[in-house]
């Protein structure tokens, strides 16, 4: 902004348009303002910063929860909802038993049995189909209009999210329940005119003037000591390489989408954790070697955390009965850098109790490892649990096979394992092309003592802590874990975009071969 001799303040054309729109409309988000100007948000950020520095605008940052489309939602945008896909072929498959109907629909519509079942259930719920004496019936009297209209509303809502538009809370809840979106926190930038701008505009002291950028050379006497190189504008400049997410981050996002589509909900927990949640809640004795300084990062502080009194009391009794030693509640309140995301899982069980649910946590953990091709001091771990009254060890093995299939892994090797807080336990291995068989699927059934400490003795939980970094190495074709965190831009640019088979084929758990004796 410059001031003329006539007392007016002059703004460049785009900045003048910005203040004009805001004075007419009031506060707007950056995205809304950009749409009103027919500009991209990134094109006006510098103008907003300059106007804020001049005291003409106020820029407010707010945290807002926004829906983000998952892999399930992207599939709906491309291929339509399961109920729409079943509806298209249901007349060709009617008159069969439910099982045969689902197989027929899967073959005719090109969808897996699970999605066929989902579509079938929605059509039955909306009275588009019925089952009589075990046979699926399509009657001309049935009105499928509501089911198809609901599906159309779902797709329309997903398209609005893709365009950055706002949708109603009710439809967001529907999409979230159907695993088509997840909720993430986003910083929203709101821009509003300042009192100074309103006063200047009222008094007619703001005007528009075109901006001209001029390069002024040094005086000729100073230029004589330089070689002057002329610009050759006929030479094309090098093409800039387009930006992209780090391939490892893309891989982690796709893994999240797989788990959400399998019915899991992501949960979060603190990086600085209490020994109680990291160890004691898992019935891990206070003299266990894993709780020593060579396996855990301890914080130099006198701070002690807080845990509900009844939970501490219950944990103490179970530890003393089970392990036969005097349990120290003060030690359990010491802060550490968490060594496993299982701490997040046990928090979830304590909060949710004896229900049926599936949750996972994909986040960083910290251990004093020696850095080499397969180990790091800070790494990602994928932890998860399935909780229910009838959950068994077989469900854990089935999950590992299903998850391996989704990643395009065709061979796994299971062997009995031992972990302090699960029984029975298993160690699952996959074959890396360079490193051989590597362990990635450790898991088991939480011991009864764990569930009793957490206040959920009436249910079982299968749990795992997957070495997601090692899985990423296999999918991305890397043989050194350090490459996942490389700062070499040329190397990172050459990494493949991880497109998991789960999204592009009908890979099933039955396609995964369990190896009895690895070679």
TrEMBL record:
GO terms for molecular function: ATP binding; metal ion binding; phenylalanine-tRNA ligase activity; tRNA binding. Residues 255-496 form the Aminoacyl-transfer RNA synthetases class-II family profile domain. GO terms for cellular component: cytoplasm. It is found in: Cytoplasm. Its EC number is 6.1.1.20. InterPro entries: aa-tRNA-synth_II, aa-tRNA-synth_II/BPL/LPL, Phe-tRNA-synth_IIc_asu, Phenylalanyl-tRNA_Synthase, WH-like_DNA-bd_sf, WH_DNA-bd_sf. Pfam families: HVO_A0114, tRNA-synt_2d. One of its GO terms (biological process) is phenylalanyl-tRNA aminoacylation. It is an enzyme of class 6 (ligase). Keywords: Aminoacyl-tRNA synthetase, ATP-binding, Cytoplasm, Ligase, Magnesium, Metal-binding, Nucleotide-binding, Protein biosynthesis. Its main location: cytoplasm. Belongs to the class-II aminoacyl-tRNA synthetase family. Phe-tRNA synthetase alpha subunit type 2 subfamily. NCBIfam families: pheS, PRK04172.1. This is phenylalanine--tRNA ligase. It comes from Staphylothermus hellenicus (strain DSM 12710 / JCM 10830 / BK20S6-10-b1 / P8). The lineage of its organism: Archaea, Thermoproteota, Thermoprotei, Desulfurococcales, Desulfurococcaceae.
């Amino acid at each position: 902004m410059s001031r003329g001799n006539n007392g007016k303040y002059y703004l460049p054309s785009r900045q003048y348009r910005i203040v004009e729109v805001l004075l007419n409309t009031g506060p707007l988000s950056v995205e809304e303002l950009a749409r009103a100007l027919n500009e991209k948000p990134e094109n006006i950020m510098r103008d907003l910063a300059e106007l804020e520095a001049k005291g003409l605008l106020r820029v407010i940052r707010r945290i807002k929860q926004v829906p983000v489309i998952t892999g399930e939602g992207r599939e709906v945008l491309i291929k339509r909802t399961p109920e729409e896909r079943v509806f298209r072929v249901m007349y060709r498959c009617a008159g069969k038993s439910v099982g045969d109907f689902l197989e027929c629909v899967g073959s005719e519509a090109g969808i897996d049995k699970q999605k066929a079942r989902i579509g079938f259930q929605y059509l039955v719920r909306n009275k588009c189909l019925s089952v009589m004496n075990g046979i699926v019936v399509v009657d001309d009297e049935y009105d499928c209009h509501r089911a198809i209209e609901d599906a159309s509303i779902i797709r329309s809502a997903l398209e609005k999210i893709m365009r950055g538009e706002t949708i109603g809370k009710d439809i967001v809840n529907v999409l979230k329940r159907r695993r088509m979106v997840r909720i993430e926190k986003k910083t929203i930038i709101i821009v509003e005119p300042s009192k100074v701008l309103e006063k200047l505009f009222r008094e007619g002291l703001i005007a528009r003037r075109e901006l001209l950028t001029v390069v002024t050379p040094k005086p000729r006497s100073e230029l004589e000591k330089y070689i002057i190189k002329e610009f050759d504008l006929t030479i094309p400049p090098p093409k800039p390489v387009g930006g992209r997410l780090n391939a490892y981050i893309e891989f982690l996002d796709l893994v999240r989408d797989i788990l959400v589509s399998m019915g899991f909900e992501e949960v979060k927990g603190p990086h600085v954790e209490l020994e109680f949640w990291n160890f004691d809640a898992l019935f891990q004795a206070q003299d266990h070697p894993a709780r020593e300084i060579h396996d855990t990062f301890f914080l130099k502080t006198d701070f002690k955390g807080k845990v509900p009194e009844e939970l501490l009391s219950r944990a103490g009794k179970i530890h003393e009965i089970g392990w036969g030693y005097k349990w120290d509640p003060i030690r359990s309140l010491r802060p550490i850098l968490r060594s496993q995301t299982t701490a997040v899982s046990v928090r979830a069980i304590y909060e949710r109790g004896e229900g049926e649910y599936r949750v996972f946590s994909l986040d960083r953990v910290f251990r004093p490892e020696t850095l080499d091709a397969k180990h790091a001091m800070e790494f990602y771990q994928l932890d998860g649990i399935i909780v229910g009254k009838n959950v068994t060890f077989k469900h854990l093995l089935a999950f590992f096979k299903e998850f391996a299939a989704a990643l395009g892994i065709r061979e796994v090797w299971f062997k009995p394992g031992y972990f302090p807080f699960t029984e029975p336990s298993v160690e699952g291995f996959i074959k890396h092309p360079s490193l051989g068989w590597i362990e990635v699927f450790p898991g088991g059934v939480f011991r009864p003592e764990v569930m009793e400490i957490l206040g959920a003795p009436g249910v079982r939980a299968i749990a795992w802590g997957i070495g997601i970094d090692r899985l990423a190495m296999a999918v991305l074709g890397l043989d050194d874990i350090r490459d996942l965190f490389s700062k070499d831009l040329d190397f990172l640019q050459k990494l493949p975009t991880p497109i998991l088979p789960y999204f592009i084929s009908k890979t099933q758990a039955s396609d995964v071969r369990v190896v009895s004796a690895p070679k």
